[in-house]
Design the sequence.
């Protein structure tokens, strides 16, 4: 047997031992040391390996435990009622913040005589079924259309498939018009049965019931849907020809009266403490149900209050999804490598065996610093638990030490910079190691990446790969050299040509006119990002005044802290830095140097904006300039001091954070109206 096969056999054996250990703890002794998701991830790895290497399957392996007419395509349907998604909460603190926002919003909305009773708000808590949303339209009691959520405005007509689901009534008990919403789901037992068939056919098993439910409902052949025995829970009336009950609790009961299957585990909670108790209770009980539950949805019970609270750009203010836990998965840490940043900080990065988590493939995770590596006691070769909450960057939560074979390697931070070989230093009071060599190759490269990036000169077509190509061929060694490049220099390089060279040189020439804030940002001064650069530009008005500023003058700039002031002062005292500025000024023109400080007559004075996502027509940098031109401030992160979030498509975590804080969220059109365009 080859050495590689021996390692695989050893891995399979170890997986069996650990899975059986945790299975026994859970099923025999009612104890749990790792999450269900982590254990499932181990099981999936074992199944995959045994599929690939069936010669290593043994009878005692956990994997051996037995525990209409096709459519050509789906028709697009525009929703009669917009379909919303709930924002997420991940902790008790998040959910209490939500309760505070609801009460504050209601208090502001009510007249003095109608203040919020005893200060409490009643909530309906419903289990958050991990399934697939469906919108059901009935006319005179008969099912007319079943539509997927789609993008919230347009979905797909899947009526033929939905008619096969027996828990969805084809005729209601009353001849009414109705649009109801629900969750289609596949039970755990059903998933297990279908995945066994998948494996027998040599096909990949479905990752979870939600994926299976979603994949099934979009089958073009309704016969496949009928075979898979999907279920549905109805939970909302979005439109009706009759008077909708005044409470969410009444709405659920009305759905039952009409003949829908409703999850009966909902509960009326008198206050947020009762909500948290319900959440804790179901976090413990969730695995006992056949359907997957990944949290609790709470909604303000009063329909009147719901209407007052309304919606943000994409989510209701009256409800939120209270998630049980972060998503987790297990994988192997194959190596740890150190990266050198533009400020010289050495960061250890875990190189992982690729694994799916929260809908994406993860192959790397930062280990932050040496102290974190020691805290985790993580070693090269370890099996680790990865965690990801929402769209937060994955991190290594812990090590499954029982999986160790004795061949794992302890990692030590290098004593020398891995790029230039200079002895690294650890600044007293800091956790980070740094390369002190100001001419370190890695630092210089990353500084050049930053120099030409969007925050700096924003040179189109001059990304990291092209910078590397130019530097490796000794055409550039500093930002100054970029503006001395000619077409003839560039066109002889690999993967370049006459047209590419011409485009690059044209882009460089276009960038020769640069605004003062961008010029300052491009210098890469430690602690000086886009907003700090703008504050410096606004205060001093020219690069000459900035470079001659005293430490006291820098300390006096609004928004500049002591450490940043010292960083800027020290940077301009370095002869090599002064030379860079002098040489750049010979090659570029700094435009709009005089930034007005008299902004009291401008429209956005005192207002702070954050931009996120992709706008239909507006470039983010252009939007920031509009804010500043109108006397407002721009921030890169959402906080309690933010007044407006301007959100486009794929808004991400900033959108969620703004929603949580009750910050006004506007789109491009609303923003342009504010600045008078």
Sequence:
């Amino acid at each position: 047997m080859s050495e590689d096969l021996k390692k695989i056999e050893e891995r399979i054996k170890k997986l069996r031992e650990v899975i059986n250990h945790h299975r026994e703890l859970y099923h025999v002794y009612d104890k749990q040391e790792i999450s269900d998701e982590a254990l499932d991830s181990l099981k999936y790895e074992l199944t995959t390996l045994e599929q690939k290497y069936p010669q290593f399957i043994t009878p005692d392996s956990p994997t051996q435990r037995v525990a209409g007419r096709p459519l050509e395509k789906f028709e697009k349907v525009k929703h009669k009622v917009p379909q919303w998604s709930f924002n997420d909460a991940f902790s008790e603190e998040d959910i209490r913040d939500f309760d505070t926002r609801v009460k504050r919003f209601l208090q502001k909305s009510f007249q003095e005589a109608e203040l919020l009773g005893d200060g409490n708000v009643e909530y309906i808590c419903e289990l958050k079924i991990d399934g697939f949303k469906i919108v059901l339209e009935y006319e005179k009691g008969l099912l007319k259309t079943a539509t997927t959520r789609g993008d919230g405005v347009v979905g797909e007509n899947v009526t033929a498939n939905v008619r096969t689901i027996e828990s969805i009534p084809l005729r209601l008990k009353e001849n009414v018009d109705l649009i109801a919403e629900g969750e289609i789901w596949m039970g755990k037992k059903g998933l297990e049965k279908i995945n066994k068939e998948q494996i027998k056919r040599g096909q990949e098993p479905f990752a979870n019931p939600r994926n299976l439910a979603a994949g099934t409902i979009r089958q073009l052949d309704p016969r496949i849907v009928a075979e898979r025995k999907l279920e549905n829970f109805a939970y909302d009336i979005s439109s009706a020809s009759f008077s909708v009950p005044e409470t969410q609790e009444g709405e659920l009961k009305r759905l039952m009266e009409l003949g829908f299957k409703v999850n009966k585990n909902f509960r009326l909670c008198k206050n947020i403490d009762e909500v948290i108790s319900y959440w804790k209770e179901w976090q413990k009980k969730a695995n006992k149900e056949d359907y997957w539950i990944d949290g609790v949805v709470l909604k303000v019970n009063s329909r009147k209050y719901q209407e007052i609270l309304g919606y943000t750009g994409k989510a209701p203010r009256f409800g939120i999804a209270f998630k049980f836990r972060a998503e987790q998965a297990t994988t192997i840490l194959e190596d740890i490598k150190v990266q050198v940043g533009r400020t010289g900080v050495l960061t250890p990065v875990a190189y992982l065996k690729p694994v799916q988590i929260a809908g994406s493939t993860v192959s790397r995770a930062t280990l932050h610093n040496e102290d974190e590596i020691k805290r985790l006691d993580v070693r090269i070769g370890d099996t680790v638990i990865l965690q990801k909450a929402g769209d937060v960057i994955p991190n290594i939560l812990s090590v499954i030490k029982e999986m160790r074979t004795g061949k794992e390697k302890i990692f030590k931070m290098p004593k020398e910079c891995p790029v230039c070989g200079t002895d690294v230093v650890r600044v007293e009071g800091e956790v980070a190691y740094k390369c002190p060599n100001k001419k370190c190759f890695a630092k210089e490269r990353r500084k050049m990446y930053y120099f030409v990036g969007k925050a700096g000169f924003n040179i189109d077509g001059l990304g990291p790969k092209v910078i590397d190509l130019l530097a490796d061929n000794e055409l550039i060694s500093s930002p100054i050299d970029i503006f001395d490049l000619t077409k003839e220099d560039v066109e002889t390089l690999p993967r370049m040509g006459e047209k590419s060279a011409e485009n690059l040189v044209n882009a460089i020439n276009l960038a020769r006119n640069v605004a003062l804030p961008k010029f300052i940002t491009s210098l890469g001064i430690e602690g000086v990002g886009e907003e700090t650069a703008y504050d410096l530009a606004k205060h001093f008005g020219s690069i000459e005044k900035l470079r001659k500023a005293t430490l006291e003058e820098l300390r006096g700039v609004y928004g500049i802290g002591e450490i940043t002031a010292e960083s800027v002062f020290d940077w301009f005292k370095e002869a090599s830095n002064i030379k860079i500025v002098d040489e750049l000024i010979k090659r570029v023109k700094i435009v709009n140097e005089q930034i007005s400080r008299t902004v009291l007559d401008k429209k956005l004075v005192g207002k702070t904006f954050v931009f996120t996502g992709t706008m239909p027509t507006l470039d983010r940098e252009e939007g920031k300039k509009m804010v500043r031109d109108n006397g407002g401030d721009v921030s890169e992160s959402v906080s309690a001091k933010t007044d407006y979030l301007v959100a486009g498509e794929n808004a991400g975590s900033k959108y969620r954070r703004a929603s949580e804080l009750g910050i006004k969220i506007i789109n491009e059109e609303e923003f342009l109206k504010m600045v008078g365009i």
Summary: The chain has 25 helices and 24 strands.
